[in-house]
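User: Can you help me understand a structure? I only have the sequence.
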Amino acid sequence: MATTDSNLTNIPIAGKTFDEVLVSGSKDELNQLKTWLFAEGIRIEEAIEELRMLEARFISERSQFREEMKNLSRNLDLEKKRQKSEAAFFDKKMEILKDGFAKLDADKRKLEKERLGFLAQKENIAREVDYGRYDTVEYLFRGTSNPIALKKRYKDLLKVFHPDNFAGDHEMVLGINKYYEKMSSQYEFDKEETDVG
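Assistant: Let's start by predicting it. Here is the structure, written out as tokens:
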């Protein structure tokens, strides 16, 4: 039985090959060969067992790696979807904000226009009120033909319209003072003209 296995040619029996010991070896050499083959068989079985364990570990690690890759891939897909969803949500919020700012700007312009209209209306009303108040004050002083009657009416009106009174009106008192000063200066002017003339 010829073999080309290098381990069989290098058996530790007095420099003989496996075939030589097998064919023409003594009983003692055959027992040594048998012991060596037994030890070699155990070594090979251990090596095979170690290879099986390595293979099982490799298969386990490979399946674990594949599972981790699946999980990573799944997580990556979920993350991409989440980011896409967040980007869409952000875009939607930006669109809402832009619309809100546009409406706010339009409302601001509208309010400013209304404010200017109200200010103009207020000025018109103030002019009408002042004109009406002046007419009212003039009416209150009707029938005062001399400085004494003017002064008496002035004092009576101040008692009625003084702001400390329950029905007092500050604006009316200002109008009364203004009209009294105007009429007083007119009576004084008329008196000076009559004295000169």
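Now, to help you interpret it: The chain has two domains: 6-86, 110-196. Residues 6-86 form one domain. Let me know which part you'd like to focus on.
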